[in-house]
Amino acid sequence: MDIKDLDKTRIPHHVAVIMDGNGRWAKQKGKSRIFGHRNGVKAVRETIECAAEMGVKYLTLYAFSTENWSRPKDEVVGLMELLVVTINKEIKTLMENNIALKAIGDLESLPGRCHKELKHAIEKTSKNTRMNLVLALSYSSKWEILNAVKTIANKVEAGQLSSEDIDEKLFAQSLCTAGYPDPELLIRTSGEHRISNFLLWQIAYSELYFTDKLWPDFRKTDFCAAIADYQKRERRFGKTSEQLSNVLQ
User: Fold this and answer.
1) Segments in the chain forming alpha helices (H)
2) Closest Cα partner for 125 from 97, 103, 94, 104?
3) Does the global pTM surpass 0.85?
């Protein structure tokens, strides 16, 4: 499957990816989990390049969840070091390809150096317009939703809002993804069929695509295959096929 095989008029604006399988990939090779994470960087690079080339405007990658903090210390430290090194290496490429880096999650919980490098990369690429690369770091959807509830509750308590003001639009504006379109497509690798606490509000009507490929083996052809599968689907948003047909006529 190649980009030229896709319908250019039906490219999703926002694709989210749960990058799963680094640990199992490494285990199959008798290596440490961090070895798998390092080899997953190539899959990240190819996915970004492919998404930008085909015209995706937002690509959100689930890089590190709040639950991941409970993993073995060596793995967490290795992941944070890998993140810093990768961000530093990729800034030049992001600038050359006109891609803006953004991040969602409890970013204040990241180690100081990691947070500093991330902030620098976000500021450096902020004026780029071709695509937005969104990293979900120290992120979980339950944390995000609870944080939004607290933010709204504080505004009601302060008299800045009334309960009648609270609707879906206001709630969405209180989430980490405020200003971003909801993903039309969510991809998960490694054969697992779970959402794993990722963008629960935002993917209410997203198409879900699961592949058995472990993340380090995921390539441009696999990303194109996911988009091709998405293009075969009928997105009804609660309506019937007949209703959609009438709208198009």
Assistant:
1) 22-28, 33-54, 73-96, 112-124, 141-157, 168-173, 220-231, 241-248
2) 94
3) yes
b/e code 14-26 from CB counts within 10 Å (16+ = b): bbbbbbbbbbbbb
Catalytic residue among 7, 20, 217, 246: 20
In b/e form, how buried is each residue of 128-163, taking b as 16+ CB within 10 angstroms? Answer: beebbbbbbbbbbbebbeeebeeebeebeeeeeeee
Q: Which amino acid is residue 245, in one-letter code?
A: S
CA distance 24 to 190: 9
pLDDT of residue 225: 98
**20 in active site:** yes
What separation in angstroms does the CA of 50 have from each of 86, 164, 165, 245?
Answer: 18, 44, 41, 32
Spatial separation of the C-alpha atoms in residues 163 and 204, rounded to whole Å: 23
Q: What is the pLDDT of residues 4-44, one digit of tens each?
A: 999 999 999 999 999 999 999 999 999 999 999 999 999 99
Q: Respond yes or no: is residue 165 known to be catalytic.
A: no
Q: Which residue of the set 2, 22, 68, 147 is catalytic?
A: 68
Q: What angle in degrees, to the nearest 10, is found between the helix axes of 33-54 and 220-231?
A: 50
For tokens 């290496």, the residue is: 89
**Alpha carbons 150 and 242: distance in angstroms, whole number:** 41
Instruction: Please state, in angstroms and rounded to a whole number, the distance separating the CA atoms of residues 218 and 133.
Output: 18
DSSP 5: G
